[in-house]
Amino acid sequence: MTAQFDVDGLTAERATVRVGVVDDEPMARAFVSKILSSAPDLQVVGEGADGGEALQLARTQDLDVLLLDLKMPRMDGLDALRELRRLPTMPAVVVLTTFHADQAVASALRLGAKGFLLKHVDPAELVRAVRVAARGGAVLDPTLTHDLMGHLASHHLDRIGAAAEVARLSARLRDVLRLVGMGRSNNEIAEELRLSDSTVRGYVSEILAATGCSNRVTAAVLAQRAGLLD
């Protein structure tokens, strides 16, 4: 299954995306770094085995993207994210996880992670995800959204369900939410619905406010759970 990506408000990119890889498993680091280093526009500038080393990389290597495991010794990924948020410039963090999305992944998204991927993601999807994250986009592996939903569920989802929540939106907002759930960027949504970029940005903000979703990743999860993508 193909991961979904959302890119908005993109700025000029430098020629090479600088990436850090942090995982306490040496084989996992080596595998990810080898895949990324095979892409001509990606450069792995450092690796780490815990959250402290992730912070060191972010402070010294001018990272564009940080691939971060969450469950590590000494300082875990969540504590690292809390400290990364204090930096003048925080790299785009993509969480690497195994087999399932748990409360730690949900917490990472709330702390500012741009998304999450399975560690055994297809190599081409991993490369693409890093490129998108470097441009300010969000990365969502749809194979994990069912697991994640229970951990992300806010009071309104527990109370009346995603479908009922989405039904309260206008038809236009549901159209926009469906496209967000499909990983479309604001520019792509604007083109498909024949709207201006600024109008789409306003609609997305309205959706987040109306549903209580904290960001586009959680809005995409809501769209999927509500059946908008069926």
TrEMBL record:
* Residue positions where 4-aspartylphosphate is found in the record: 69
* Domain Response regulatory: residue ranges: 18-134
UniProt keyword list: DNA-binding, Phosphoprotein
Q: Name one GO molecular function term.
A: DNA binding
Give the record's GO biological process terms: phosphorelay signal transduction system; regulation of DNA-templated transcription
Q: Which Pfam families match?
A: GerE (PF00196), Response_reg (PF00072)
- Which PANTHER family does the entry link to? TWO-COMPONENT RESPONSE REGULATOR
Name recorded for this polypeptide: DNA-binding response regulator, NarL/FixJ family, contains REC and HTH domains
